[in-house]
Amino acid sequence: xxxxxxxxxxxxxxxxxxxxxxxxxxxxxxxxxxxxxxxxxxxxxxxxxxxxxxxxxxxxxxxxxxxxxxxxxxxxxxxxxxxxxxxxxxxxxxxxxxxxxxxxxxxxxxxxxxxxxxxxxxxxxxxxxxxxxxxxxxxxxxxxxxxxxxxxxxxxxxxxxxxxxxxxxxxxxxxxxxxxxxxxxxxxxxxxxxxxxxxxxxxxxxxxxxxxxxxxxxxxxxxxxxxxxxxxxxxxxxxxxxxxxxxxxxxxxxxxxxxxxxxxxxxxxxxxxxxxxxxxxxxxxxxxxxxxxxxxxxxxxxxxxxxxxxxxxxxxxxxxxxxxxxxxxxxxxxxxxxxxxxxxxxxxxxxxxxxxxxxxxxxxxxxxxxxxxxxxxxxxxxxxxxxxxxxxxxxxx
Amino acid sequence: xxxxxxxxxxxxxxxxxxxxxxxxxxxxxxxxxxxxxxxxxxxxxxxxxxxxxxxxxxxxxxxxxxxxxxxxxxxxxxxxxxxxxxxxxxxxxxxxxxxxxxxxxxxxxxxxxxxxxxxxxxxxxxxxxxxxxxxxxxxxxxxxxxxxxxxxxxxxxxxxxxxxxxxxxxxxxxxxxxxxxxxxxxxxxxxxxxxxxxxxxxxxxxxxxxxxxxxxxxxxxxxxxxxxxxxxxxxxxxxxxxxxxxxxxxxxxxxxxxxxxxxxxxxxxxxxxxxxxxxxxxxxxxxxxxxxxxxxxxxxxxxxxxxxxxxxxxxxxxxxxxxxxxxxxxxxxxxxxxxxxxxxxxxxxxxxxxxxxxxxxxxxxxxxxxxxxxxxxxxxxxxxxxxxxxxxxxxxx
Lengths: 397, 397
Hints:
CATH class of the largest domain in chain A: Alpha Beta
Helix content of chain A: 25-40%
Oligomer: homodimer
CATH superfamily of the largest domain in chain A: Type I PLP-dependent aspartate aminotransferase-like (Major domain)
């Protein structure tokens, strides 16, 4: 019989998009839906991006270089210098967003059946990338009560097997908002050295750190510079998600040579979007400061609202624009669906992402949701009020 | 020791890009290099593309839908109607060029170790896509003397094993310029039905067919519509290679459901480039007619020049903008390199692609080159004259 691959069967559907039909139905019925379920910011994309694009004037839209436009690579290089990260031009390859950076990295370091350790809850699409590459994600379970910080070195070491190829972290973390401490990164570095494995850092939220906390990159740990892979993206940093521009960077020459072979096979990344992205390096410091202040305000609104809901467990998230909160309910998926189908306050409701999809361990996260604080102050305040009322009404059902 | 994957080792480097350093060196030394080695057309991209992009006016560059912008999907649907192919909206998913369409298709139908039959010589990057997906390409050898048309049904059937998942063709063919006949496609259809496997048609050169020949799509064979996968791209059709916009289409619902899961994992394709691509459906028929006439003229220049070189074997190519020719030399790679390092006519030389990289069978294609006729008339005439003189000089060494 004409059949698809096992990979096709194993490939997970997006756990976030599963509830979309219910949201669409609610909207059809005249209900306003506040989306706290997705990471699409409402912050204006810097005008520089659009100016650059409007000024494109070559008669032929040609292929770009496979490693990416040299000017864009150079703009990333300068950006990293400001972050105290010294990547050379040939240590940066432009990708289709952070997504391609991660999937190519997994393909370069692992073969089908090989394992990668990832703190859970983790960005749900990691499962998809691993499935495409044939790799298996083994979770390092972290807990809401501990602010989703890492467990002990001994515990993490106990998870490592001969076919473990890397530890991958999202820092600041999507979905938890956790910012790993320098001590935690050093510990991961020690493990990577002791077991001779790679460390993949998904650092697309690097600028989104609050309360004056300092961000530490995996590249800031000198001992492990030969085995660190940084996956990056302009999507959140410049509110340019639709550009699909990211990069993968490493000082490991063999790794970069492999990424270059993958990059050559798919020819190049979109020429026009690279042009727009190149101009973004000129974005002023003030832009980031304003954006950061705005998100910190939003974080406070969400966190304070959660604190005031009886039974919610949630440490203060320090980065990114997400938080995972344990709710006083049994089944967050049912709750999220119910909010869309059966609940509203003045014809408005709030959509949240059930957190189980961010866990690899079956059964975990069933009473948790991820909230993305990507709406402006007024909307966020209303959305959190509706959520609080919804939790109360759902519990009293 | 910190090591990469077996896949990283197996991943082929681009055979075309290997000679690039010699071309760069030649240019440094003041030699003009006519590039017949790459498929980057010099035809103007329709102005409609740039107009659409300049008119983008949303304040935030947001994620698009994972399946692609609905307007773009609809524009592909209308385009297919004109080609007598009836794809519905949910049978079309937008991809990063034809490249992503192919790699996702391979991942959907095959698991590591599974095989796909492809007529050789074939587009070299198929090797890369297969390697990334863990699949193995088994060649169906075709010959210059036979215009690279397919061998007998019996022979092709003899290559099929229990883990053969599909037959994939490029039609019109890159690198050979061969346009498969309706009879050949029907034969492949029969094989696909008898062995219950998929048929993947890379039809990105659909419009590039000469001498009034009619193009037949795999979708024009009614019996196999449940198992045909069409991989497509706007790159060549509208001279918009840098847009990286393509699509994968099929009437097989399970297949499309799987592609959608892959598409969701990488979120979406570039928003701005999709906008430009959407406008291209309005490109006038006259554009295609002019472009077609131009390429036919170029094909004639190249083919007639090849006919006049003693010892060259080459049937008239009927489509795409490539030709593979057997030259009266032993080692086309050495010859191509020598043209760049040791030969010039009035400080100009011609760069060609050695064809061995397009074969999977070791040893085949060593005396063949691929020429892309993507230069304007005058340049092409000079380039072919230099090539003829080069072959003579190289043979007399």
